[in-house]
Design brief:
Layout: H1 3-14, E1 18-19, H2 28-38, H3 44-63, E2 71-76, H4 84-90, E3 96-102, H5 105-118, E4 123-124, E5 127-128, H6 131-135, E6 143-148, H7 158-170, E7 177-183, H8 188-191, H9 201-217, E8 226-233, E9 238-245, E10 249-253, E11 258-262, E12 267-274, H10 278-285, E13 291-297, E14 303-309
Helix pairs in contact: 2-9, 3-4
């Protein structure tokens, strides 16, 4: 039994309002679906950040200020590494080890396969870990560049984001840097379709969380009786996803030996996706030990990659 998932499901479904953490989206099927989502026309985030790397990779590498010092390029939530390959190309003259971190073994294996073909001489040390576990391993004296791309920070509340960035900073040395990819606050007509695409990929991605609980914990969620419900508060700058019960129903989770009752219309909150402005980011950075040095935007300014550094 997946003990971590079991504990989270017990806690999340026993509370009001009900919640399940988005970190459990990424089993093999979830990772596969997310890759498809990033290719959908509505999901602008990946294309916008890729454009930043296409336009600015040389500037980014120079901004890292690495000179001829060996370093570790540590990517938290590496996924398929599609965008990062553009940065790796710009770093070919440098001496570094690439450390992709991902919770999904399947995603890491796919990444390693593609890297071995495209960059046969690249030194790669993959870590199949959650972010916080991986951070505890960042203790060597080697210089570090940490990549946290794709606006993954947006899955945390602002308070959690501050704590997370502080934990990164605590494991860095003076001069080390973080490249933080963030989705920017935009109108609803741009943002909301990214979480409710016409092909239903985001719907299937969200519902797969219940499917995973069925498979791994012996639950009997009837996925047809749940609907994917995204929302976006433009003033607040936060997109949210929930799974809403279509009927009054009971769900048995065999591994927990528990039955949970749901009312018609009752949601299980599964994800937040924070959108950012410079003002929001500055508030989050206060007290983290990291300072903002430079920002790189795509042409439409939908997305930004923010270079943070631990000062001397």
């Amino acid at each position: 039994m997946n003990q971590d998932l079991a504990l989270a499901v017990m806690a999340g479904l026993s509370r009001r309002p009900r919640r399940l953490s988005s970190r459990f989206f990424y089993d093999a099927r979830g990772s596969e679906l997310f890759v498809e989502i990033t290719k959908s026309p509505e999901y602008y985030l990946t294309a916008a950040e890729r454009e930043i790397f296409e336009i600015h990779s040389g500037e980014l590498v120079r901004a890292f200020a690495l000179a001829d010092t060996p370093f570790e390029l540590i990517e938290l939530g590496a996924g398929d590494g599609h965008k990062t390959a553009l940065l790796l190309e710009a770093l070919t003259e440098y001496r570094f080890t690439y450390v992709p971190v991902d919770i999904s073994e399947d995603a890491l294996q796919d990444l390693l396969g593609s890297l071995s073909i495209r960059f046969p001489d690249l030194t790669v040390h993959p870590l199949q870990e959650e972010y916080f576990s991986a951070l505890r391993q960042l203790r060597s004296e080697t210089r570090k560049v940490v990549l946290f791309l794709g606006s993954n920070l947006g899955n945390l509340s602002d308070e959690e984001a501050t704590r997370f960035l502080r934990q990164i900073a605590d494991r860095l040395h003076a001069g080390d840097c973080v490249l933080l990819g963030l989705d920017l606050i935009k109108p609803s007509f741009v943002v909301l379709p990214a979480y409710n695409d016409a092909a239903g990929l985001t719907r299937d991605f969200n519902l797969n969380l219940l499917g995973r609980i069925n498979r791994e914990l012996g639950a009997d969620f009837d996925l047809a009786q749940w609907k994917h419900e995204p929302s976006y508060d433009e003033a607040e700058g936060v997109a949210r996803s929930a799974l809403v019960s279509r009927i009054r129903q009971q769900v048995r989770v065999g591994a927990l030996q528990e039955t949970f009752a749901f009312e018609a219309g009752e949601p299980i909150h599964t994800e937040i996706s924070r959108k950012y402005s410079l003002a929001v980011l500055e508030e989050i950075l206060a007290g983290t030990g990291l300072v903002l040095e430079q920002v790189f935007y795509d042409r439409r300014r939908y997305f930004g990659d923010f270079l943070l550094r631990k000062p001397d």
